[in-house]
Specification:
Order of helices and strands: EHEHHHEEH
CATH architecture: 3-Layer(aba) Sandwich
Strand content: 5-15%
CATH superfamily: Glutaredoxin
CATH topology: Glutaredoxin
Strand order of the largest sheet: 2-1-3-4
């Protein structure tokens, strides 16, 4: 499994601590440094079963600058959202775990991390 993290994020650190406590095998992707491409974001969204606006941190300063809260949330605007996530990775909700079974989830709670471990 792989976990996308921002080391400054307390939810990310908690998820890593739980993975370590469970002796899980995983790789860390510091997505602010190793920025995912638009195609990678689309792939993770497919695995998550979510739309790009579902994983966008709309309260970030850059989100407010871009005015993302006003953007349409439909198939026609999907590429605009994905492009924004790739260009401004700080907008990506975290942590995201891509599980070994091909699924993914936003692991902001202990329950979500345990769910990823069970996959």
């Amino acid at each position: 499994m792989e976990i996308w993290i921002n080391p400054a994020c307390s939810k990310c650190r908690s998820a890593l601590s739980l993975l370590d406590a469970e002796d899980a095998e995983y790789t860390v992707r510091r997505y602010l440094e190793d920025v995912p491409s638009e195609d990678e974001i689309r792939g993770v969204l497919q695995r998550l079963g979510l739309e790009p606006w579902d994983i966008t941190r709309t309260e970030e300063a850059v989100a407010k600058e871009l005015g993302v809260k006003e953007w349409a949330r439909d198939a026609g605007s999907r590429d605009q959202w994905v492009r924004a996530l790739a260009e401004h990775p700080k907008l990506i909700q975290r942590p995201i775990i891509t599980a070994d079974d091909g699924t993914a989830l936003v692991a902001r709670t202990e329950e979500a991390v345990r769910d990823a471990l069970s996959r």
